[in-house]
Structures are given as C-alpha cells and as structure tokens.
Amino acid sequence: MSAPSNAAPSNTAPSNTVAARALRWGPLAVFLILLIVLPLQLDKVWVNKITLWIPLAVAALGLNLLTGYNGQISIGHGALCGFGAYATALMINEWELPFLVAILLGSVFCFAVGVAIGLPALRIKGLYLALVTLSFATLFPQLIEQFSSFTGGTTGLAVTSPQEFRGAIRDREIKFQAPEWSGLADDQWRYFLFLALAAGCFVIVANVARSRVGRSLVAIRDNEVAAEVSGVNVATAKVFTFGISAALAGISGGMIAVYNARVTSGSFGLALSLAILVAVVLGGSATTMGPALGAISVSVFETVIKPELPKDFLGSIDLQPATPLILGVLLIISVLVAPGGTVGSWHHLLERLSHRSPSPTEAPNPSE
Amino acid sequence: MSEFFQFMFIGLGNGAVYAMIGLGLVIIYRATGIINFAQGEMAMFATFFVWTLTEVGLPLPVALLGGMLGGAIVGTLVHQFVVRPVGNPHEKPLAVVIVTIGLFLGFNALAQLIWGTEGKVVKPLFGNGEFNIAGVPIDHQKVGALAVLALEAALFYLLFKKTKIGLAMRAVASNSESSGLCGVPVNRILMIGWALAGAIGAVAGTFMAPISALDANLMQGPLIFAFAAITLGGFDSFVGAVVGGLAIGVLTDVVPKYVTFVDKMPLAPAFVAILIVLLVRPEGLFGTKKVARV
Fold first, then answer.
1. Interface of B with A in 27-66 (CB under 8 A)
2. Cα separation, B260 vs A305, whole angstroms
C-alpha cells in the first residue's frame, strides 16, 4: 500500500488517457446540458410531461443505494414514495407549510419509516426481503383506503393552499409561480426546482458512495461476514441505508404530490415500485448516474411512447400495453447480457477500448 | 355462529386456490431455489388459454386440460430461455428477482395485448349450486376447489414418493451437482418442475377467475396470499403449502369481517403472517431449517 503503487498505470499512454477522459466525461456533460437546455426549448405540454422523470430518478437513486450498493432488495419503494407523498400533502394542507419545507419534513418522516422497516429487514434477507417488500407494495393502497378519513381513499386528497380567488381567500390547489427575475414560465420554474432538488440528492449520494461509508455498504453486499470481521458495523450500516433510501423515496413522493396537487392511493401501488426497480436496473445498479438514465428511459416509455401507440392497431388490437412488455423484455435481456445496465455497459466498453484492466467502478488495485 | 362457519368455508375454498398457487411456487423453489414472482402471472396467462378454448366451444373441463398443457409449455419455455441462463439464485438473488419481475411485467402486458383489458367471464367448474349443511350454505365450487386440491396433493405425493422422475426431482433439489454426476438429467428434471408449476397454475386460475373477472391482474392479490401460504408452511414443503394455503384463506376471509381495524385490508393479515413467520421461524411450520456455514 505504498504511495507509488497508486500512481497512474504506466502502460497507459497520455493521449489515451485524454481520450478516455473525454469519453468518460463527455456523455455526462452532454447529458447535463440537455437536461437544462431541453425544457427551455420545449413547449408547455412537453415540459409538463418530462418533469415527471425527476421524482422517478430520485426514488431510483434511493433504491440504488439500498439495492445496488447495499444488496438489500426492495420491491416496495413505491409505498415509501406514498408515505412521503401523503406526509407532504397533509403538512401542506393542515399546517400550511411551504411545499419545499413540507417535502423535506416528509423525507424526515420517511427516514423514520425506513429505519422501522430496516430493523426487521436485518433478519430477512435476499429473496425473502424482496417477497416482504413486494407484499407491502401491494398492501399500501389498501392501507390508504383503510384510513380514508384523512387520506381521501381512492378519490384522493387535494393538495391545497389558501389563495386569493374572486376577491376571497380560499383553499385552492397549490400552484408554482416563477419569480419575475427568472424569466421562466411556471412549468419551467417547477422543472428547475425539481431538478435542483434532485441534483442535490445525486451529489450527496455520489459522495457518500465514494466515501468510507459507501465502500462499507458494498462490502456488506458482497460478503456480510467478511465486512463484519473487517470492522464494519453491519447492523447500523444496513438500517441507516434503509433510512436514507426511504428518505429519498419520500422526497420523490413529495414531488409527485405537489406536481399532481393531489395524492391518490392508486398512484403508489405495485406499478410504481416496479417502475423504480426497472429504472435502477436499466440505468445501471451501483452506478452514480444510472438511476437518472434509467428513470429517463422509463418515463420516455410511459409518457412519450405509450400515448403515441395506436389503440386500434389492425382494427382492434390495443398496442398501449406494449411498453411494459418491452420494459420486461429489456429487464431480462439486461440481466442476461448487461448486468451493469446502461452505465455499466458503457464503462465496460470504455475499458475494452482503452485496454485498461481496473474498472472505473472498482477501487484501483494496488500492484504488489 | 352460522355466519362464522360460512366465512370459514369461503375462506377454505379460496385457501384451496392459494394452496394450488403455493404448490407451484414450492415445486419451483425446491427445484431451482427461486421464489418465482411471475408465478401468478403465468397462471393468469394459462387461464386465458382455458378461456380461449371455451370460446372455441370446448367444454370447460376439456379446456382446463388444454390450458394446463399450455401452462406447462409456458413454464418449460420460461425455464429454458429465461431462468436457466441466469445461473445460481443463491449467489445472485438480485438477478433472479429482476428476471422474474421482468417476466411478471412481460406476461401481464402480453395478456393485455392479446386478450385486451376487458374482463372475461369464466364459468365456475362445479356450477353455481350450493350445499346446505345445518343452515350454512356452501358453494359447490368451494367444495370442488378443496377436492381438486386434495387430488393435486395426492398426485404430487405419488409423483415424488413413488416414481423415478419424483426420485430424480428430489435428488436434484437436494444436490443438483451430485445428482448430475450420478446420471440424473438435471436440466430436464428442472424443466419438468417448471412445466408442472405452469400446469397447476391453470387450475388455480380457473378457480380464481369466476370470483373476479378474468383480466391481466387476476392473480396479483392471490399471489401475495400464496406467498403468505408458503411462508407459513415452509418454502420447500408441499404439506406446508396446503396447510398454509387453507390457513391463510381462512385468516384473510374471517379476520377482516370481525376486526374493523382491517376491514378494507384483506391483505393485511397475510402480510402480518409473512412478517411474523420470517422473523420468528423463517423455515415455517413444515419447512427444512437452513443451516449456513460461514
């Protein structure tokens, strides 16, 4: 573990490194620029539609931390989003909190829920944890209906704030108003607020993942006993990860609540949980940008491609269910052919191009 | 009191269906170590085969046999082309979960593509009549479900205990590598397991469909109940699947009627059962205790 062994591998020519760097950072830069430029160019309807990838990306970020890095499988993150959404909605309605504060407090609430789930999850592992969380995802809409007195049940709960309307102050659905200095339309303002919130989450998680804590999470995933004897406090780390992951899902749920200005039990069922899982896997589990890419591809399928499909193909065939079919097939192909998802495959490709042995996702191997 | 018995018999009848799905799950778990999250959707798909055959004009029992054959073919294809290439589920639990979730999404969407989103009517296999025992009305269909479950359980017992294929299946479940070295055609045996699970799904679906209309989401609730059943009974126990299925059926039909706190949550008792069993006794009532060497 001496200092020289950590220096750049000598077999890599400098020009090669520059090229490799461009290939590594180039797509990321283009991606980030697109995220900022596109909503400025598109018209209102499209800005509205594409805004929804952001909450999905934040939920996927949370699931990626839990499942991708830490190896605790959850198929119930849709329900955690639901907790966040209802907490946010109730705080805005009852306490008249500003929505950003409500979203953040909602995520604190979800952290507590996550810790409460994380504790029994210490004893339930692998496939069995997947089973429990899947059951919970299916149970959640029923739970909301059971307590319909304050959740609104299937009709849902409008997220309102007192606003001036026809000369009187009344409770009206909350609205986003862009401040004048920004020069943005209201929808664009909302998009960029969400984007900023999501960017904050991504930066925090990326830093955590690269830190000592992140490495201990991966160690637990790969071999729990080995991690334990290496001095990792496995129980604390796992429960804490569940909490953080749930908090991110909570932020995502809060965004969904203020975006729709309404929360309904149907929005946080199994379908959402599966969408989050699909986003993580297709984007690339245990990668920094994977959840964002995955969330974008899932929302492109759901909000862009699906409505364009004909409902009366060849006379009577409704082609709209084709999108989950494509996602399901992609999921299976991804596991069989590209377990690292989009980002993992890209890294793999870069490695083969530059003939370097250490992969960017692994810690550099000191040559002994 | 007679009301209580009525709920209980409804529960037993529904529980028989959960037990059937559970039997399919147990076969696959024993053979390949996989909890098949797509089991319910495969059963739904096979039930659509049954419905299609009745539309063609076949009587329901014949259509059911055809649907079982279709389900077996689906199971075989799934094993050959999707599950086998993934590899060992104990080394890569996430990969297995994701693949079966992919199957779940795929079958659900494919059924909607082929058969549409409108609910289809499947007639009850044993008609609409009911027995009347001491003032308690009991549907023929529920008694029929219990009888079919008993038949399935007996056939499974004979298959596993008295036939060469059953012996090979037990050998593969206990140690697939060694049984392969002894000349057991491991892959073919696993394939038979998946085919059996697919076939039994058609039966479960045909009993489920008359209760709610047959659509792509037919089996999502029952699948959770079946998970609760095999968790309670033990993931690798056929007896457990039957006992667990009946117990969960009674639990989910009786408890919400009397406990107002969960009257809109039929899934709640099942979920609580799953959680408690996994925490307190992970091997379930009849399952094999797992001993891990570290």
1. 34-35, 37
2. 44
Q: Measured between alpha carbons, how far is A212 from A239 in angstroms, rounded to an integer? A: 17
Reported ipTM: 0.89
Query: Is A305 part of the contact surface with chain B (CB cutoff 8 Å)?
Result: no
Per residue in B248-286, pLDDT tens?
A: 999 988 888 888 777 788 888 889 999 999 998 888 888
Which residues, at least 6 apart from B62, have a Cβ–Cβ distance to it below 8 Å? B53
- What is the pTM for the complete model shown? 0.87
The answer to whether the CB of B96 falls within 8 A of the CB of A127 is yes
A85-94 per-position pLDDT tens digit: 999 999 988 8
Instruction: Name the percent of chain A in helix, strand, coil, to the closest 5.
Output: 70, 5, 25
Tokens of B241: 């699947």
For testing contact with chain A, the best of B21, B34, B42, B97 (most A CBs within 10 A): B97
Distance from CA of B91 to the nearest CA of A (A): 10
Q: Which residues of A touch B227 (CB under 8 A)?
A: 131, 134-135
The strand pairing partners of A172, in sequence order, are A161
Nearest to A327 among B105, B224, B294 (CB): B105
Q: Can you read off the two tokens belonging to residue B274?
A: 């799953």
Are the Cβ atoms of A132 and B274 closer than 8 angstroms? yes
- Cross-chain Cβ contact B221/A127 below 8 Å: no
H/E element holding A161? strand A160-165
